[in-house]
Write a structure and sequence with these properties.
Blueprint lengths: L2 H6 L9 H11 L5 H8 L3 H11 L13 H8 L1 H17 L9 H21 L5 H10 L2 H9 L1 H14 L3 H9 L3 H11 L4 H9 L11 H17 L4 H7 L5 H4 L3 H22 L1 H9 L1
Helix pairs in contact: 2-3, 2-6, 3-5, 4-6, 5-6, 6-8, 7-8, 7-14, 7-17, 9-10, 9-12, 10-11, 12-13, 13-14, 14-15, 17-18
Length: 288
Amino acid sequence: MTAEELIQNCDDLPSLPDVYLRVKEVVEDPNGSMVDLARALSVDPAMTAKVLKLVNSPFYGLSGKIETVSRAASILGMQPIHDFVLATSVGTTFSKVSSPIMDMNVFWQSSVERGLLARLTAKWCNLVDSERLFVGGLLCDLGHLVIFQHIPDLAVQALNQAKTKKKLRTTCQLELLGFDAAEVGAQLLKEWNLPLSYQQGTRYHMNPSQASECSLEIEILHIAGMIAECQLLDMPRDQWMQWITVEDKELQALTDEDLDGFMAVVQEDLHMMLDLISPSLARATVSS
């Protein structure tokens, strides 16, 4: 079996909600307007409320209250609105997923932490579209969900091997399955027809050198992904630095102090972002 075959054979593969598909269509339309975006969101009042809550949150730190989606889009641009709707759609879609052998609260907390860390690193690099890195980080581990749902025994075996042998989960999955969660996740995003940048970020974030064109964005996701992986597997800090391999000179200049500062901000923003994406995820994380 290949990663592509696994995705194609998933009869219960979730689909993204209609409101996201409408927003995506507007953003990709060269003639799409702020009014069109607001109209697309109006089919889901709950999503509209979440967008406005985000725009008025400390996440953006804007002065003055923003009361309409069209006003929010005129200030932030249409792409950040699209990215947040995508993040929220993924959170809503998968918040209903349960697994008897995978702690979903830990999974979502780790995913949001990775996204926040990627965003902070992108801002540190002065990337204009740093919000896209948040979404990219959030998407990176979706392949693990698919594997745990559909081949749970092998998923657990790979996880146990990773912890015992101090290896990456994806390395152990490759040895056991012939493919890994990064490939599965990329295939899922392809099935959803998400932008190629998200597909490539998910596919290569564990091994940037395998990408035909390794971008700064992929290397940022690599840093965030490796730190999240080490935390999940209870690896010491020095393991982070051994597994992180980047070519960008600016990223090579990141220090332990920089990463400590990023992680402190991540912890400050974590519950707020979980609550924005899916209140049920935030409640579950607090109670766990």
